[in-house]
Write a structure and sequence with these properties.
single chain, mainly alpha, two-stranded parallel sheet, globular
């Protein structure tokens, strides 16, 4: 499952994750459809996204693994 706060069309993120085997890909529209209203200019803030993901409530997975890879 991919959970993001921005539009999935941005930079092709939604298509990328679907094409790479993610069965659930959720972005801004998912949160808006659930009635969430606290958006900033680009979507759901990172802190609100983590809060929703960790809560495991409606529309989330309840288990969160955070992965980060940085190359310079």
């Amino acid at each position: 499952t991919y959970l993001g706060g921005a539009e999935l069309a941005f930079a092709g993120k939604g298509a990328f994750f679907r094409e790479h085997g993610y069965t659930q890909v959720r972005g801004w529209k998912h949160w808006a459809d659930l009635g969430y209203e606290r958006f900033n200019d680009w979507g759901l803030s990172d802190s609100d996204l983590f809060e929703q993901a960790f809560a495991g409530g409606q529309g989330t997975v309840g288990v969160v693994h955070v992965h980060q890879r940085t190359a310079l």
